[in-house]
Design brief:
alpha/beta; six-stranded mixed sheet; four-stranded antiparallel sheet; 19 helices; disordered C terminus
Length: 581
C-alpha cells in the first residue's frame, strides 16, 4: 500500500528530500541556543565577563537567524511536496477510474469515489506534510536534546526517559483504539455524500412530492450519527493532551526539586539547570509533535487504505496484447453466451444465447422488466465480458479488439441520458471532436433534434446545464442519439432511447435512421411494439433467454408473449397522437 501511494510523489521527490534536510538544520540550530544561554549565564553573568555575554549573544542571534531561514525553506518545500503529492494522487485515481470497466465501477458508490478524491486525499496531504517535516523535526530534537541533557547531567536526564516511556504507553493506547473509530467515520462520510447527491439530483421529485421535511430529517439523522461517531473518536484523542500535561509538569517539578539539591551540593550550575529546563521543553515539544503525527496518521490510515484500494483496482476488462484495430462490418454473433454480473452467481442474467445478426440489419428487442435486454447489448461493445461463450462483431471476438476501436464502431445510447455542462455543440462533439457544425446539424436532423435546437435563442451555442437539467427527457434523448450518430458507427444500439418522445417523432427518427444509416446495424430496445414492429427481425427476451425471433407478422402468429404485449398496448391505446387499435 505504501509503495503504491509513495510512487505518486514523482516530480516532488526533490522537495520531499530537501524538507527533512532543512528541518534537521533548523532543529540543530534551535538546540544549540540553550547551550549558548548556559555559557552566557556561567561564563558571562556569573563571572562578570561582558565580552563573553556579547560573544555568545551574537552566536545565539546567528543560530536563531539560521534556524528561522531553515524553517522557512522547510515549510516552503513541505507545502510544495504535499500539495503536489495530493495532486498526483487525485490524477492517478481519476485516471484509473476512467480505465474501470462497468463491473469495476459497480463495486463503488459514486459518493464513495468522490469522498476518496476529496476528503481522503486531503487527509493524506496533511499527514504527508507532517511526516516529511514534523516526523524529522521531532525525532531530531528529541535525540539531540537527550544527548545534550545527558552531557549536562545523566542522573537528571533519567526524568526525561521516564516521561518518554509514560507518553509512549499513552500514545500506543490512543492509536490502537482510535484507528477503528476513524475507519467507521469515513465509511459514514460515503453514506452522507450519497444522501446529499441523491437528494440534490432528485430535488424536483422531492419538491413534487412535498418531501422536503422528510429528506431534511433523514439528513439530520445522518449528520447526527456522524457527529456521534466523530465525538467517540475524538474522545479517545482527547487523552493525548492530559498525558502531555502530566509529563510536562511532572518533569518540571522533578527537575526543579532534584536540580535545586544538586546546585546546593555543587554538582550542577545554575546555567546548566537553565539549559535543562530548555531541553525539557524541547523534549516535551518533540513528544507533543510526535503525538500530533500519531493522531494525524491514525486518522489517515483509513484514508490511505481507501485511496490504495482505488489505485490497486485492476480493470476487469483488459485490451489484448496484439489487438485488432479495424472492425470489418456491423455483423454480430452470439455463440452459446451466458453472463452473470458477479462470478459464482446462482442464476446467470443471460443463458444460452445463440444469435446471428447480419450487417446493416435492424433488430428490435423487447421483453419484460428484468429480461436482460440491456445486459445483452452491453456485451456487444464489451462494457462487460461474457461469463461463457463468445460475442463477435465484424466476424471477430470482441475480446480481440482494441477497446477504443471497438467502442468507436459500436455506438450505444444508454437508458440513462447524460448531457454535460457546456454548449449543445460541445455535447454533440463527444461523438466526434472534429465534427463540423454542418455535420452536427445533419446528425440532429436525423435524430429530429434540429427543430427544437433551432428555436433556442442561441441555437447550437445554447448552454446545457449540468445533466441537461434545462432540457426535457425527449430532447435529451434526441441529443444523445445525434451524438451517437456523429461517430458514424458500424453498429448503433438504442437502449429504450425514444421512450420519452411521442410516437410520431419516434416514427420520424426510425425512418431517418433507415434512410441515412442503411449499412449500419441497428439494435433498438423498446417497450412499445410500434417502435420495433417495422424492424427486419424482432427478438423477444424472457428471463435472460431468447423466447422468440422473427418479423412482426411471424411473432404475432407464433409467439404468445409478443402477441400479448401487442394486444395489451393496442387495447390501452397509444400515445396522444396514436389511435387505439
Amino acid at each position: 500500500m505504501l509503495k503504491i501511494l509513495l510512487s505518486q510523489v514523482k516530480q516532488y521527490k526533490r522537495d520531499s528530500l530537501l524538507t527533512p534536510v532543512f528541518t534537521t538544520l533548523e532543529s540543530i540550530m534551535e538546540l544549540i541556543i540553550p547551550l549558548l544561554m548556559a555559557r552566557i549565564i556561567d561564563e558571562g553573568i556569573n563571572e562578570g565577563n561582558l565580552s563573553a555575554v556579547y560573544r555568545y549573544g551574537a552566536l545565539m542571534l546567528l543560530a536563531a537567524a539560521v534556524s528561522l531561514t531553515m524553517g522557512i525553506l522547510a515549510g516552503r518545500h513541505a507545502a510544495r511536496a504535499s500539495s503536489g503529492f495530493a495532486c498526483n494522487l487525485r490524477e492517478a485515481m481519476y485516471r484509473n477510474i476512467q480505465r474501470y470497466s462497468f463491473s469495476n465501477i459497480d463495486k463503488y458508490s459514486t459518493a464513495g469515489l468522490v469522498t476518496r478524491l476529496t476528503t481522503d486525499v486531503t487527509n493524506l496531504q496533511n499527514a504527508y506534510q507532517m511526516i516529511i517535516r514534523m516526523c524529522v523535526r521531532a525525532p531530531v530534537m528529541l535525540i539531540f536534546a537527550l544527548i545534550m541533557a545527558f552531557s549536562i547531567s545523566a542522573r537528571l536526564s533519567m526524568i526525561f526517559v521516564a516521561a518518554i516511556a509514560f507518553l509512549g504507553l499513552c500514545l500506543g493506547f490512543i492509536v490502537a483504539h482510535a484507528m477503528g473509530a476513524f475507519e467507521k467515520v469515513f465509511r459514514k462520510y460515503d453514506e452522507l455524500n450519497a444522501g446529499v447527491q441523491e437528494n440534490v439530483t432528485a430535488i424536483r421529485v422531492v419538491k413534487s412530492f412535498v418531501r422536503e421535511s422528510f429528506e431534511t430529517e433523514k439528513f439530520q439523522n445522518a449528520v447526527q450519527n456522524m457527529y456521534t461517531m466523530f465525538v467517540k473518536a475524538e474522545k479517545l484523542l482527547s487523552f493525548n493532551s492530559p498525558a502531555m500535561m502530566i509529563s510536562m509538569y511532572g518533569c518540571m517539578m522533578a527537575l526543579s526539586w532534584f536540580g535545586a539539591h544538586m546546585i546546593i551540593g555543587g554538582t550542577l550550575t545554575p546555567g546548566q539547570l537553565t539549559s535543562l529546563f530548555s531541553y525539557v521543553m524541547n523534549i516535551l515539544m518533540s513528544l507533543m509533535m510526535l503525538s500530533m503525527i500519531f493522531v494525524m496518521v491514525t486518522m489517515s490510515i483509513a484514508s490511505m487504505r481507501r485511496i490504495a484500494q482505488v489505485l490497486e483496482e485492476e480493470p476487469d476488462i483488459q485490451a489484448p496484447s496484439a489487438p485488432v484495430n479495424q472492425v470489418a462490418d456491423g455483423s454480430i454473433s452470439f455463440e452459446q453466451v451466458s453472463f452473470s454480473y458477479r462470478p459464482g452467481a446462482a442464476e446467470p442474467v443471460l443463458q444460452d444465447i445463440d444469435l446471428k445478426i447480419r450487417s446493416g440489419e435492424t433488430i428490435g428487442i423487447i421483453g419484460g422488466t428484468g429480461s436482460a435486454k440491456t445486459s445483452l447489448v452491453a456485451l456487444i461493445s464489451r462494457l462487460y465480458d461474457v461469463t461463457q461463450g463468445t460475442v463477435k462483431v465484424g466476424g471477430r471476438d470482441v475480446r480481440e479488439y482494441d477497446l477504443e476501436t471497438l467502442r468507436n464502431q459500436v455506438a450505444v445510447v444508454l437508458q440513462k441520458n447524460v448531457l454535460f455542462s457546456g454548449t449543445v455543440l460541445e455535447n454533440l462533439r463527444w461523438g466526434d471532436p472534429n465534427a463540423t457544425e454542418e455535420e452536427c446539424r445533419q446528425a440532429c436532423r436525423v435524430a429530429c433534434a434540429d427543430e427544437f435546437i433551432s428555436r433556442l435563442p442561441d441555437g447550437y451555442q445554447a448552454r446545457v446545464e449540468r445533466d441537461g437539467a434545462n432540457f426535457s427527457g425527449g430532447q435529451k434523448q434526441r441529443l444523445c442519439i445525434a451524438r451517437a450518430l456523429l461517430k458514424k458507427p458500424k453498429v448503433l444500439i438504442l437502449d429504450d432511447s425514444t421512450s420519452a418522445v411521442d410516437t410520431a417523432t419516434d416514427a420520424q427518427i426510425r425512418q431517418a435512421l433507415r434512410q441515412e444509416l442503411g449499412e449500419t446495424t441497428k439494435l433498438i430496445i423498446a417497450q412499445r411494439i410500434s417502435s420495433v414492429q417495422d424492424a427486419d427481425r424482432i427478438l423477444v427476451l424472457d428471463n435472460g433467454r431468447i423466447n422468440g425471433i422473427g418479423t412482426h407478422e411471424e411473432l404475432m402468429a407464433s409467439n404468445k408473449i409478443y402477441r400479448e404485449v401487442y394486444e395489451s398496448q393496442m387495447k390501452a391505446g397509444g400515445d396522444f397522437d396514436e389511435k387505439a387499435g
